[in-house]
Amino acid sequence: MKIMRPPGNLLQQRLLALLDDHATGDGMTAEGLAALLSLPAPEVEVELETLTRLGNLTRRAGVGGEAYYSAAPRRKLLGNMLVEAGVITEEQLQEALVQQAQTGGRLGLILLERGYISKQILGQILETQRGVPYISLPTYPIDEQLVRSLPEWVITQHKVLPILREGREVHLAMVDPTDVIAMDTVGTLLGARIRPLLTTERDFDWAMTKFFDVSRRVGESLAAAPEEEDQGVGAVSVTDAIEAPPVVRVLNSIIHDAVRIGATDIHIEPDVEEAQVRVRVDGLLYDKTTLPRGTAAAVTSRVKALAGMDIAERLRPQDGRILLDVEGREYDLRIATVGSAFGERAAIRLLNTQQVLLGLERLGLFPEQEQILTRLLAHQHGMILVTGPTGSGKTTTLYAAINQLNERMRNIMTVEDPVEYRLPGITQIPVREKAGVTFDLGLRAILRQDPDVIMVGEIRDPATAAIAINAALTGHLVLTTLHTSTAAGALVRLLDMGVEPYLLTSEVAAVVGQRLVRVLCTTCKRQHPLRRETDIELFRLPPGLMLFGPVGCPECGTLGYRGRTGVFEIMEMTDVLRELVLQRKPATAIMDAARAGGMQTLRDSAIRKVLDGVTSLDELRRSIQVEVQ
Ligand SMILES: [Zn+2]
Question: In b/e form, how buried is each residue of 278-300, taking b as 16+ CB within 10 angstroms?
Answer without folding.
Answer: bbbbbbeeeebbbbbbbbbbbbb
